[in-house]
Predict the 3D structure of the following.
Amino acid sequence: MFGYAKVVLGTFLALASIAAARADETKLRIGVLRLSSSAPVFIALDKGYFRDAGLDVELKFFDAAQPIAVATATGDVDVGVTAFTAGLYNLAGKGALKIIGGMSRDRPGFPLIGYFASNKAYESGLKTPKDIAGKRVAMTQVGSSFHYSVGLLAEKYGFKLADVKIVPLQSMSNMAAAIKGETVDAALMPVSAARKLMDEGAIKHLGWVGDETPWQVSGVFAGPKTLANAASVSKLLASLQRAEREYHDVVLASVKDGTAAIDDRTKPLLDIVGKYTNLPVDQVVGNCAYIDPDGKLDVKNIDSQIKWLQAQGFADPGYDAAAIIAKDYVKPD
Amino acid sequence: MLERTSKDPTETAGVQPARHVPFRGAGFTPAASRWAGWLALAAVLVVWQLVGGLALVNPLFLPTPAMIMRALYRLAASGALWQHVSASFVRIVAGWALGTASGIAVGFAIGLWRIARSIGITFVSALFPIPKIAVLPLLILWLGIGEQPKIATIALGVFFSTTISVYSGVDAVPRNLIRMAQSFDVPFPTIVRKVIWPGALPSILAGFRITASVALMLVVSAEMIGAETGIGTFVLQAGNLMQTDQLMAGILVLSLFGLAVGRLISLLEARLLHWR
């Protein structure tokens, strides 16, 4: 009788230890967009930095920032790397995920999001970003990073945000149609989406958000289950930082007039970014988001983003940056 | 005959003994029970609240009915609810009326005339399956971002369904009634008014039920086009901001809209189809 019990117990213990051994070679699913603002993730994967740290990383590609936050909260991906949105903050405010590091920033000299005018509006005097006060401005969604950028602009130039007529159109194609058809005066678009319209002469470029109002655009975040495994989170961040340092010192250091140089040193990294973003290298160079070499997070800016969203009613009240940041991992700026 | 078989069994040796057969031909009359629907709804709500209240499910993924009602109350108290509802109501009514009026006209044309039929059915078949969301950029280019593209989105969705239900209704009018009227030399407009219209009406009203729901569904797509107020905008925004309780509150308002419209059409059916 006891002999039988011992056999059963022994089998269970053996199975448990196998399971534990498998958990050691940590498998991580990272949710990302095919955008160059996630360049370090692509570089770390392609050059094997994750593998060196003992991580088995699999990338899951999404086509919008919001679903990545949702997938991270539901556990469909373990880690998300994308722009901070009101939806992400609301999920974090409810404890569904926490921010563990910084990624891209809008910063002078590095084009990421731009202000654009329709041809007609440009002719009738919309020539600089501050002129958008009182105009009809298209963007994807209210409470999006574009909306926040307009809020920062309003703060900088002292006009009321309420004076700007925000036109949420949900998708880039709707926005392109609206600004081409002159039914809006201006739009905020990422450089990757605007480039083609600019080349066609359909829109006029007014300026870059990075030049006007620098801010922390995107970051790295994880759900509670991933956070519980401190060792793998540390490994992940360390290998990301290795790639961030390399990307910063090689590619970003070569950026002049918003364009990176293509030479022997930058080419291999640009090729990797191009491979994952499905862009030819000559388009990747004009689209290099600034990324902190140490993966630092501008915590103060995160806090002011949350305060702004809460003041506008886009974020639920009752939490601040400190509540949604995993302090053990984040290096504040 | 029954008496004879019972008295003389030898004569009917091969005949089955008589069986009592209950009346079977009552037809199907699914009468709506007054309480069953409400009771089922209440039971679902109670279970739902319990599941949420006992923290079996993260409230983020499934907000409880109480949370949804609170979100709805806050929305109503701030006055925003009425702005959203009235903005959407105008769009739904305008779009539905436009789509229905043109749908009835085209549907009758298809049902009555040969050329209209061959051309109309081709176009309806070709254009009906186009997803309205896919043509939003075109609608924005053609009509701008004001009320017109929103109303047009709803009208387009309603138009095709109406057209189909109207012409199939016209096709289903018994031909012998039309032939009889023709034999009595009733003028064409009178045949349309007195024979075809009432004959097609049940199918047209059934079509209304579908198109009213289509209009409610499309108000969300329509309000993707730069709308600031509207229940569709509210639902979209709540989804974007991951405010799931508000999202469900918006859906609840849409459902209530749907129930009200269903009720209205039932009344209309009772009034217009009393001859059935």
